[in-house]
Design brief:
Elements: E1 2-7, E2 10-15, E3 20-21, E4 41-44, E5 46-47, E6 50-51, E7 63-66, E8 75-77, H1 89-92, E9 97-105, E10 108-109, E11 115-117, E12 134-139, E13 158-159, H2 161-168, E14 173-176, H3 191-197, E15 208-211, E16 222-230, E17 237-249
Parallel strand pairs: 9-12, 11-13, 12-14, 14-15
Antiparallel strand pairs: 1-2, 2-17, 3-17, 4-7, 5-6, 8-15, 8-17, 9-16, 10-11, 16-17
């Protein structure tokens, strides 16, 4: 199934049957964990005389799922994550389709041995964001461990707030392959989240941050149609499934 997309004066071709799923599948012991969240739990519902599992002899599977979106894999969050005035995922009524650019960056190692994505990590001024309202940032090193890492207590890489202010002026949706834009332990400062949503100035409540994606190295940097699938939850974040469809100028 092929389509043609026109944005202002530019036209693009896309094959809607060919895409890359950059979400991380969760549901077993190898699923990623961050911030000390309990691991995802999927267990059959039990009542007197009934266990909702085919393996246990039930005619159906009938499972309970316990998940912390921020700590159990790929998730999309709104500014409700840090602001009580911001909309929830369901209230945001997020459009599923966006024009996105994928880039790959190398974090800078600081004097304190932190790994930080900042204005020196990429030639940002050369970045072509024409027609683009979402950016996916893949960090090096990029390996399969991102699919199953336990980030708790490891001080993973994070984003500098000045870069996030720069991105705020150019895109609405940010997707990263790290557990958070902010440092794991920052005393509650949350400078990165605040900078992207501008919550201390004029808040941009329509913007989203998606964390803990995994973009395989076989996926080339470039322009994509992003389909960002989320659950309609009345809370600040939802497990999500971002799909990338390669775009070509028509």
């Amino acid at each position: 199934m092929k389509a043609k997309i026109k944005i202002q004066e530019n036209s693009y071709r896309v094959d809607l049957m060919k895409f890359y799923d950059i979400s991380i599948s969760v549901g077993d012991e190898a699923s990623p964990v961050a911030y000390g969240a309990p691991a995802l739990e999927i267990k059959p519902f039990k009542d007197e005389g009934f266990t909702g599992s085919l393996e246990a002899g039930s005619p159906v599977n009938f499972y309970n799922i316990r998940i912390n979106p921020h700590g159990n894999g790929t998730h999309t969050e709104t500014a409700r994550h840090i602001s009580r005035e911001a909309p929830s995922i369901s209230e945001l009524n997020l459009s599923p389709h966006h024009i996105a650019r994928l880039i790959t960056v190398t974090p800078r190692i600081t004097e304190d041995a932190d790994s930080v994505v900042d204005l020196s990590s990429y030639d940002w001024d050369s970045l072509d964001l024409e027609d683009v309202n979402a950016i996916i940032i893949r960090t090096k090193p990029n390996n399969i461990n991102k699919r199953r890492a336990n980030y708790t207590g490891t001080n993973p890489a994070y984003y500098d707030h000045e870069l996030l202010s720069w991105l705020n002026k150019r895109v609405d949706h940010l997707l990263i392959d790290l557990p958070s834009v902010d440092k794991e332990q920052d005393g509650g400062a949350l400078k990165g989240h605040k900078a992207f949503w501008q919550t201390e100035k004029k808040p941009d409540y329509h913007k989203t941050i998606t964390e803990m994606v995994f973009v395989d190295s076989v996926v080339n940097d470039g322009l994509y149609l992003l389909e960002l699938q989320v659950l309609s939850l009345n809370t600040d974040a939802s497990p999500s499934r971002p799909l990338l469809f390669p775009l070509k100028k028509a």
